[in-house]
Design goal:
The complex is a heterotrimer of chains A (about 240), B (about 240) and C (about 250).
Chain A lengths: L1 H7 L3 H10 L3 H27 L3 H15 L3 H18 L9 H26 L3 H9 L4 H31 L11 H11 L5 H30 L10
Helix pairs in contact in A: 2-10, 3-4, 3-6, 4-6, 5-6, 6-8, 7-8, 8-10, 9-10
Chain B lengths: L6 H12 L2 H27 L3 H16 L2 H23 L10 H26 L3 H9 L4 H31 L11 H12 L2 H30 L1 H4 L3
Helix pairs in contact in B: 1-8, 1-9, 2-3, 2-5, 3-5, 4-5, 5-7, 6-7, 7-9, 8-9
Chain C lengths: L1 E10 L2 E11 L4 E5 L6 H8 L7 E6 L2 E4 L5 H10 E4 L11 H12 L4 H14 L15 H14 L4 E5 L7 H18 L3 E4 L3 H6 L3 E6 L2 E6 L1 H6 L4 H10 L9
Parallel strand pairs in C: 3-8, 3-9, 6-7, 7-8
Antiparallel strand pairs in C: 1-2, 1-4, 4-5, 9-10
Helix pairs in contact in C: 3-4, 3-5, 4-5, 5-6
The chains are: A mainly alpha (about 240), B mainly alpha (about 240), C alpha/beta (about 250).
């Protein structure tokens, strides 16, 4: 049995694959960073919609979240990749030469914004209204109250979910290869086709290890952040 | 030159895509049936800190959450044929590994993935149940099994429901990746139809609509379930 | 100094305040008594614009506002003259005791940091918390937190401090420390105070006026002796009977 496995599976191949794959990690990380920034910004706007007194804005905010949360990533990717140029055609704008990265960023920004709008909303709503009242009672303007009192508290509450959201978007991003984007997964698939599909398993395992390591790093980072920011709180474990 | 949407194709493909829905639902439901009890039991091993199993469960969950589902699919889809081939060769079984119905791969992968995710869901839900509940149950003479079945599980489910809903919706979305295994679910069927006339936008719009309806229905079902199960919470409202 | 006229406020269909008039002079310590639901807290919150009254006027020194139509600038100006002590303390959980006290000074009143810190420390000393400048609210007992809340109000040097049931959320053994701080502020500093409370002893020992409210209106008002020992209205008598133990004789 072992000799048969050896014919098809070579563990050392995992190591040799890594140097070819790792340079493309930069692409993955770059695209993810932009997605996180723009997604958080859009998510903040959506949260404001959801919490506003305006019924229409509420509907838009909540409707957007529901729709995105019910859409598989590749479906969203393809709709953006094929749909936006098609839409642009209607206005006689030619989008044929736009870098695939743009479509990737748009798609995952839309997705991340939906996640973030829920993260921000629930963090904000878990803060006692009395904090805002006390702030304006000592003479802070509403903006100052939000910025100096509410926001720091909301940030700490949101941190764990923010970290999870980042890990989630990183993993959904692995699907970018389906529209031809050459990030680390795209490169892996290129390597596999070059090898006429031999040693595909080893390459996939290498990919898995890279993503796993990345996720663990992000988790540790956010754990550390939480500890630093939780100065005003004691968690249940210490009592 | 703009052509607008091909509405005829849009409607036709809708039904083609819809034909995939039975496979989607089949994979989802079977995966859940496997994953729910397994996830619950493994979550219990983590809460009760059973030595070896707890560690394995921890690493298992970390792997599933830390790697993209598509890569898990690739790995399992590539490795099972290898293992099976070695196995068949050794025992001279004459089955052709390439003729295995993709649905078996799909069931294995999605059960594997969903179980891990549910371990986390149940772990945090179990953490919210007060120890006093179990103690009270013991004091009136219930065995551990009875205590869990009649009291604890309902409380755990109520707390876990929102996350269970999210997990189910995510599972349904993940099945769209079944095309990578040639699984004839919604996405693959529509893609095949689209490839013939290059009507990608229409095809994906159809797929989009079907998933939207499917997921919204699931969310609605869970909302109703939640209301039913949390009746005991509203008692003093 | 502060005059409130004809305040009305309803929540959904329930009328909580049905036309309340109130006037306070400098140096007054006014206690508002009344059963729950009488509107005492709502009245206080309307004065500070934490609730928006449906109708009413207020004049604060030479500033006059319509309580319903007041604009942001007017609200801000009024809040500069008033400080509020909350039933649930509402200390900023992410700031130390000293930072809680200086926040309003530095950001709200734009006082330079060094001066604000000095004032903050003085206020905390006054309430007996000199050891706790750098403690976070979670490290403090309820009584200590409320004292920080009072220091926060006092440091602002307001024209009037509003107290909304300051001791109702405290364990009984912590009530005393807060009441003695309030007493010290009233007697030694001569601060003008409007206090909603159930602590009759405070009304007796510190207040110079007592107001009894019930069902959204002022039923009776006068000196502590007049209200507590010789009440005239039926409702006042009924309330006091429930609240004051029968064989506790007042000597004022």
């Amino acid at each position: 049995m072992v000799s048969v496995m050896e014919k098809y599976f070579d563990i050392s191949y995992i190591w040799t694959a890594l140097p070819s794959l790792l340079p493309f990690l930069k692409v993955t990380l770059f695209v993810s960073s932009i997605t996180i920034l723009s997604g958080t910004f859009l998510g903040l706007i959506l949260t404001i919609f959801k919490l506003s007194h305006n019924r229409l804005l509420n509907k838009i905010g909540n409707g957007y979240t529901t729709i995105i949360r019910c859409t598989p990533s590749i479906v969203l990717l393809f709709l953006v990749y094929y749909g936006i140029p098609k839409l642009a055609e209607e206005f006689n704008v030619n989008l044929q030469n736009i870098n695939t990265a743009i479509f990737v960023i748009i798609t995952f920004t839309l997705q991340f914004a939906a996640i973030m709008s829920e993260v921000i909303r629930s963090a904000y709503q878990s803060i006692d209204k009395g904090q805002y009242e006390a702030a304006v009672s000592v003479g802070l303007s509403p903006f100052q109250a939000y910025w100096r009192i509410i926001f720091p508290q909301a940030l700490v509450i949101a941190l764990p979910n923010f970290g999870n959201g980042i890990i989630a978007v990183l993993q959904e991003g692995a699907l970018a290869y389906t529209i031809g984007f050459i990030d680390i997964v795209g490169k892996a698939n290129l390597m596999i086709t070059n090898n006429i599909n031999a040693h595909a398993l080893e390459i996939y395992i290498a990919l898995a290890i890279i993503y796993w390591a990345l996720s663990l790093l992000i988790e540790k980072f956010f754990s550390m952040l939480e500890k630093t920011f939780s100065k005003g709180k004691k968690t249940l474990e210490t009592t | 030159m703009s052509q607008g949407l091909n509405y005829e194709f849009l409607i036709d493909t809708f039904f083609v895509a819809l034909s995939g829905i039975s496979i989607t639902l089949l994979v989802t439901i079977v995966s859940l049936i496997v994953a729910l009890p397994l996830g619950f039991l493994l979550a219990m091993t983590r809460i009760n800190r059973i030595p070896v199993i707890q560690r394995i469960a921890q690493i298992y969950v970390s792997f599933v959450r830390g790697t993209p589902i598509i890569i898990q699919i690739f790995i399992i889809y590539s490795s099972i044929p290898l293992i099976l081939k070695a196995f068949f060769d050794k025992y001279n079984i004459q089955l052709d590994i390439y003729k295995i119905n993709p649905i078996w791969y799909a069931l294995i992968i999605f059960s594997f993935s969903t179980t891990a995710l549910l371990i986390e869901v149940f772990r945090s839900a179990l953490g919210t149940v007060k120890k006093e509940q179990l103690e009270a149950a013991y004091s009136v003479g219930l065995t551990t099994f009875q205590a869990y079945r009649r009291i604890i599980i309902q409380q755990v489910l109520v707390v876990a429901l929102p996350n269970l809903c999210t997990t189910t919706v995510n599972l349904i979305k993940a099945t769209s990746l079944g095309y990578a295994m040639s699984l004839p679910e919604i996405t693959l069927n529509a893609k095949v139809a689209a490839n013939m006339g290059y009507n990608y936008v229409e095809a994906y719009l159809d797929i989009f609509i079907i998933y939207l309806i499917l997921c919204m229905t699931v969310e609605y079902i869970f909302k109703v379930l939640e209301k039913r199960l949390s009746k005991y919470k509203m008692a003093n409202a | 100094m502060l005059e409130i006229k004809n305040v009305h406020k309803s929540f959904h269909k329930n009328a909580i305040l049905k036309g309340v008039d109130l006037s306070i002079d400098k140096g007054d310590v006014v206690v508002i008594l009344g059963p729950s639901g009488s509107g005492k807290t709502t009245l206080l919150r309307c004065i500070n614009f934490l609730e928006r009254a449906d109708k009413g006027h207020a004049s604060f020194g030479d500033i006059k506002v319509d309580l319903h139509h007041a604009k942001k600038k007017e609200i801000h100006a009024i809040r500069q003259k008033i400080a509020f002590v909350f039933q649930n303390y509402n200390l900023f959980t992410n700031k130390t005791a000293l930072e809680n006290v200086t926040e309003g000074l530095i950001i709200g009143r734009k006082i330079p940091r060094a001066e604000a810190i000095i004032r903050g420390k003085q206020a905390l000393d006054k309430v007996g918390l000199s050891e706790k400048y750098n403690a976070y609210p979670i490290e403090l007992s309820g009584g200590q937190q409320q004292r920080v809340g009072i220091a926060r109000a006092v440091a602002l040097n307001p024209d009037i401090i509003l107290f909304d049931e300051p001791t109702s959320a405290l364990d009984p053994e912590l009530v005393g420390e807060v009441l003695s701080v309030m007493k010290a502020i009233a007697k030694e500093e001569g601060t003008t105070m409007l206090v909603v409370t159930h602590e009759i002893s405070f009304a007796k020992e510190v207040a110079n006026r007592v107001i009894f409210m019930d069902d959204g209106v002022v039923v009776e008002e006068g000196s502590p002796h007049e209200i507590l020992v010789t009440p005239k209205e039926e409702r006042t008598i009924r309330f006091l009977k429930r609240v004051i133990p029968k064989d506790y004789i007042y000597q004022i």
